[in-house]
Amino acid sequence: MMSTSRFISSAVFVLALGAWFFVLRPVSLGGPASYLWVNGKSMLPTLETGDFVVTQQQQTYAVGDVLAYRIPKGQPGAGAVVIHRLIGGSPTDGFRLQGDNKNAPDEWQPRQTDVVGKMWVMIPGAGQYLQALRSPAVFAPLVAGIVVFLILLGGDPKPRSKPHEAVRP
Predict the structure, then answer these.
(1) DSSP state of 159
(2) From 1, 51, 77, 168, which residue has the greatest number of CB atoms within 10 Å?
(3) How many CA atoms lie within 13 A of 71 on its CB side?
(4) 164 pLDDT more than 70
């Protein structure tokens, strides 16, 4: 029979997994979320270099939303992701976006299919740490440490009893 604490732990795990699946699962895995870190000054004071942003795809976007979009194909910088504020336009004719720290709108007019998503969560400065984790000099020792930790903790906590010898009549 499952203990109450084990049941609660299992329920919390299932709920967290469900939240991740429906809310935080990356687009690359069929989910609604994209993750990026800010690089540049065009969105000051709202966003700074090193801020970590989670975006979510939406059916519609409104003026004032902060959107991440890919520069459309065939244009200089095609494929790069830009995060700026929506100031006008439409999904079919192209959105007009502008950085909070810019005097003029972006030269690109992305369509709905170019939009990565609307800013949902922003964690100031966290992008610097996440980017450092991608470095082999940091990632390899971190993984090695986790493996060693799991090996050291992975021993069988119950001592094994010796098998009983068969008694002959």
Answers:
(1) P
(2) 51
(3) 12
(4) no
Which strands, in side-by-side order, build the sheet including 115-123?
33-37, 52-56, 115-123, 66-70, 81-90, 94-98
Q: What is the pLDDT of residues 107-144, one digit of tens each?
A: 999 999 999 999 999 999 887 777 777 778 877 888 88
Task: Specify the pTM.
Answer: 0.69
Rounded Cα distance, 144 and 141, in Å: 5
Reduced to 3 states (helix: H, G, I; strand: E, B; else coil), residue 47 is coil
What is the DSSP secondary structure assignment for residue 21, as one 8-state letter? I
> Which residue in this structure is represented by tokens 């065009």?
42
Spatial separation of the C-alpha atoms in residues 81 and 92, rounded to whole Å? 19
Yes or no: say if 44 and 100 are a contact pair by the CB < 8 Å rule: yes
9-37: burial string, b at 16+ Cβ within 10 Å, e else:
eeeeeeeeeeeeeeebeeeeeebbbbbbb
Q: Average pLDDT of 72-94?
A: 94
Task: DSSP letter for 26, please.
Answer: B
Written as six digits, the tokens of 167 are 């008694």
Asked if the bond preceding 45 is cis, omega within 30° of 0, the reply is yes
Which positions ≥6 away from 64 have C-beta within 8 Å? Answer: 85, 86
* Residue bearing tokens 């929506």: 86
